[in-house]
């Protein structure tokens, strides 16, 4: 009887082990199949990812993207710059692509790319050092111009009106968008209700190239803001050290710009203004009076000085409420590095010569001698 029990128990154990083995085999098979599926999915996903990364960012785009490749840039740096500017989809894939094709000797310089370009076109451009397109429009904005004046310049050369330009640059929603895009240079100061137009002074004087047949106002403003940011960014630390806000530095630079067409005189003029500010004197500069009036005049008369405007530095103390035009980098440097002197006064004669004085008495003598 005990032998039968033992035999039955042995068979039960054997069957149990067999079932366990089957279960283990099933589990192993499931794991293997799962891993194979994951591997296949990974391979397919990787292939699709790389395939997508090798394709143009946007085959249907007509946008032109200006990119600067600095001297000494490595392939890795170039790949990152291209990805950041939306020329390619993935910097890592681009690096593998140029390594696989043994492409090198990329040249530094300013390029114009498009999101519709194939990687081979991008590489060919970098190797040849040639631009991929010629500008359709080239517009030069002189230094010292107001927004109203540059709106006229653009309206004569680009397919939008002066009114359309001014409407856009005075649109509160658009201004807030720009403030979010350029936080290092556009602050709440430009929203002061006493300011005539928020972007006055912030649209840099330069020559701009546009590669579209019909660039929009937004495209134009964005190009100008990028230029302003590139110039101001070099001086942000110095502006802070001088205890200026960016708005104050831009405003000061615009006043200096309007006061002198002679670059070599700007630091000296800035020194006079700095001395007056330190003494608690009003700046009393005629260009601010003309801006306050909103019209051009060859000569400012006494009645003009009485206009009650936050721009009129005969009326307000310190700097005007905002810039009175755009500025050159030279004027910005003068505002931040004024020439030291004891002068508190200066005047221009009809030939553009400038005469400085330490006292009001000497200033009046200069007036009698060179103006009257």
Describe what you observe in this structure.
This protein has helices at residues 2-53, 75-84, 91-100, 119-128, 147-157, 162-169, 172-181, 217-232, 236-241, 246-259, 266-279, 286-293, 329-336, 360-370, and strands spanning 65-69, 109-113, 137-140, 207-210, 345-348, 354-357. With 372 residues, it is mainly alpha-helical. The chain folds into three domains: 1-53; 65-128, Endolytic murein transglycosylase (Dna Ligase, domain 1, 2-Layer Sandwich); 136-341, no CATH class. Helix 11 (266-279) packs across helix 13 (329-336). The longest helix is centred in the N-terminal third of the chain and has 52 residues, at 2-53. The chain is elongated, with a radius of gyration of 34 Å.
Residue share in helix:
40-55%
Count of folded domains: 3
Shape: elongated
Order of helices and strands: HEHHEHEHHHEHHHHHHEEH
Mean of residue pLDDT values: 85
Protein name: Endolytic murein transglycosylase
Function: Functions as a peptidoglycan terminase that cleaves nascent peptidoglycan strands endolytically to terminate their elongation.
Site (Important for catalytic activity): 259
Family: Belongs to the transglycosylase MltG family.
Furnish the topology, listing elements before pairings.
Elements: H1 2-53, E1 65-69, H2 75-84, H3 91-100, E2 109-113, H4 119-128, E3 137-140, H5 147-157, H6 162-169, H7 172-181, E4 207-210, H8 217-232, H9 236-241, H10 246-259, H11 266-279, H12 286-293, H13 329-336, E5 345-348, E6 354-357, H14 360-370
